[in-house]
Design brief:
Elements: H1 26-36, E1 41-45, E2 54-59, E3 62-69, E4 72-77, E5 91-95, E6 98-102, E7 109-110, E8 116-118, E9 136-142, E10 145-149, E11 170-175, H2 184-192, H3 197-200, E12 217-221, E13 224-233, E14 253-262, E15 266-273, E16 276-288, E17 291-300, H4 309-328, H5 351-362
């Protein structure tokens, strides 16, 4: 089920320019949306969708109305087929024993399959037109999130997060109140990029006195791009058990990073040390080409005191606040293909990013400017 978006929901066009005021070309935006379409994307925390409520989210420039109908989360195009009012402004009603989404404008009501089941103004004896329907999308619930795929056949499964729900780990969820003003693929690249640690996270994840890149090993494994390397970092909540006696007296912590990019929109950073394992998990929602909704979680199998969870959340938020302005400053909005030579990645330090971009181009997600 692939249909052209109505004009009301299309992203704005722009000239192929790299100034802050101008966006990418309409062709580049359309190519990005088409490339990202056949994947699962997280759109909302499951806890943020109450019973009998309709919540609007955006995915790839398309407005989607989420609701719980008859015990299932459904995702409908947030435009009534009648005069294209937003269904998310309506309400959940009971109709013939089943729940439906009712448009607030004229009361047209839609079932979970997107077909209109009631038109109050319809004359007696007339049937509801077969094209009185809105797009409905595939929905899945995992890791406390609602995931939507705009294609009938997702290219990959939802990436794994084995620490979620594992009782041997403490998991902290960090909620960002506002979307990031960047593309989702730049968010993933920024999280995958370890050579920025000494500069953006001085004293936390690295030191400017030791800026040399680690020896990266990069390979593909099913739907994952995998990166592994060994490094030493200062002691902190993300590298060791800071509740242990003398932890703050240690100069450096030896770590092995193993990063899994669930192509193209999820990344799981696994950090193993003598203290145990610390995991950074990021799932991105490309709300639009220049606006990304991020879902973060952090898991650890040391310092298991639940009373210290807030300290870990504050630490994670601080590290994130250091990255945010830098990533939001990057232009062009969309990742430029290698052939443009707009950006100048350097091997071997940037090998992980180069391999990520190479796979994005194969998937058709990076195709123009």
């Amino acid at each position: 089920m692939t249909q052209t978006a109505p004009v009301a929901d299309q992203a704005p066009s722009g000239k192929p320019s790299f100034c802050d005021s101008d966006g990418p070309s309409q062709e580049a935006i359309a190519a990005f949306y088409d490339g990202m379409k056949p994947f699962w994307h997280p759109v909302l925390s499951e806890a943020d969708l109450p019973e009998h409520k309709i919540v609007r989210v955006e995915l790839l420039g398309i407005g989607i109305a989420l609701a719980r109908l008859n015990g299932q989360v459904v995702a409908l195009r947030d435009l009534c087929r009648h005069f294209q009012a937003r269904l998310s402004l309506g309400e959940v009603i009971d109709l013939d024993g089943l729940q439906h989404v009712m448009c607030p404008y004229h009361g047209w009501s839609y079932g979970s399959d997107g077909h209109c089941k009631r038109i109050p103004q319809l004359l007696e004896g007339r049937k509801i037109p077969p094209n009185a329907r809105v797009d409905s999308y595939k929905v899945a619930i995992r890791y406390g999130l609602i995931w939507v795929c705009l294609d009938d056949e997702p290219k990959f499964d939802i990436p794994d997060y084995p620490e979620w729900g594992d009782d041997t780990f403490r998991t902290v969820v960090m909620k960002e109140e506002q979307p990031s003003k960047t593309s989702s693929i730049r968010m993933i690249m920024g999280t995958l990029d370890d050579t920025h640690f000494p500069w953006v996270h001085q004293g936390i994840l690295g030191s400017r006195d030791e800026p040399a890149a680690p020896d990266h090993k990069v390979w593909r494994e099913g739907q994952y791009l995998v990166l592994q390397y060994d490094v030493e970092q200062p002691p902190n909540l993300a590298t060791t058990d800071m509740s242990a006696e003398g932890a703050d007296k240690v100069e450096k912590i030896a770590l092995r990073y193993t990063d899994y990019v669930g192509m193209p929109n999820v990344i799981r950073l696994v950090k193993d040390s003598d203290a145990g394992r610390y995991v950074v998990w990021l799932a991105t929602c490309p709300s639009a080409y220049n606006r990304t909704t991020n879902f973060w979680a952090f898991s650890r199998n040391y310092d298991m005191n639940p009373g210290r969870d807030s300290i870990y959340e504050e630490f994670s938020a601080h590290v994130r606040s250091q990255d945010k302005p830098v990533i939001e400053s990057q232009r062009p909005w969309l990742l430029p293909p290698f052939w443009t030579q707009i950006e100048l990645p350097l091997g071997p330090a940037d090998k992980p990013l180069m391999e990520f971009q190479r796979w994005l181009e194969e998937l058709g997600i990076v195709s123009g400017i």
